[in-house]
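Notebook, bench 3.
Goal today: get a predicted structure for Xanthine permease from Bacillus halotolerans so we can plan the truncation constructs. The sequence was checked against the plasmid map this morning, with no discrepancies at the termini. Length recorded as 430 residues. Pasting the sequence as submitted so the record is complete.
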Amino acid sequence: MKEQYHSFQLLMLGLQHMLAMYAGAILVPLIVGAAIGLNAGQLTYLIAIDLFMCGAATLLQLWKNRYFGIGLPVVLGCTFTAVGPMISIGSTYGVSAIYGSIIAAGLIVVLAAGFFGKLVRFFPPVVTGSVVMIIGISLIPTAMNNLAGGEGSKDFGSLGNVLLGFAVTAFILVLFYFFRGFIRSIAILLGLAAGTAAAFFMGKVDFSEVAEASWVHIPSIFYFGMPTFELPAILTMLLVAIVSLVESTGVYFALSDMTNRKLTEKDLEKGYRAEGLAIVLGGLLNAFPYTAFSQNVGIVQLSKMKSVNVIAITGFMLMAVGLIPKAAALTTVIPNAVLGGAMIVMFGMVISYGIKMLSGVDFESQGNLLIIASSVSLGLGATTVPALFSSLPGAASVLTGSGIVIGSLTAIALNAFFQCKQPHGAEINT
């Protein structure tokens, strides 16, 4: 995983990863900030500190040592699972309780990482392959919404957006088919650049935010005031953190398979502890809980560049744009339709890699077939009908609010059930 590249190649590959996750990274602070009534200055801080923390959290995972860091080419970003709970906690207990609950939940994850690491035995290939497939499938609606212009946009679904998005998809596919080497490895980046250039001539690129953004931003501890600790809020945020760990686990196993590295209990323990540390830092700097970003798995598979050095560049870039708002604003000029066109390829590759992970599974086993069928069906169902479990109480709604989590828990539970049903001493084929 430590391939050597030229400095320019590292920068381009790192930039590609950053642009792939950027829209998702800034969407959470925009939603939460608007919901809890932040003013323009506070919202600017929230976005900037989130980007800074995405980079810091990523570097924590890359720094594999005795205590934390999984050492895989993984990018961390703020988890969408936290959006609803953060808004609810903020409206009930105030903003200070949001960050008190994040700090407390992060500390619990750090302390309990060893226990969570023992869950590795519940992830045989039939489970990990199903989970990775579910991750890819659950991301497709996001790609299509972006391709249409972004949900809520005035020109949503316009012919211009659709043609632009599919043109980007086609351009990326052409690069992959006709080119080799470095050009192929940065096909997503070239697709985003070409799409943005085309969008500029279509009048879809706006540089006003770049002109208005400030040059320098300094992170502050407890920017929104001293944290307060409310037990219901802490328990809710702890559940969010556990859900994030489940989502991250699928990403870790996908990347370990791509890099031909077998994960151990200790690896998962250190990965979970790094996430816990990132959550604590997010609380101290008034940012968010963090989790592994699944969209970047597609980039790793597409580019075939599996070096942690590339992801380290991404981490430093994210920290830099968090300190330089004008640079951060520059990356927002990429139209949603262009991002959507690139996402179709990236997320599709996540699905195909999940299928590849299932290639070694015994499909003669009815148990394996039921695990795959049930987990993928429930994961897809919860993704396409997000209001399916909306009537459930708060804690349950956090668990059922993500198709990835529902599908993952289904696969884990069914695999455990079928293992228990095996005759004593019989071999379990997965």
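Residues 7-358 form one domain. The chain has a mean pLDDT of 84.
Flagging this for group meeting.
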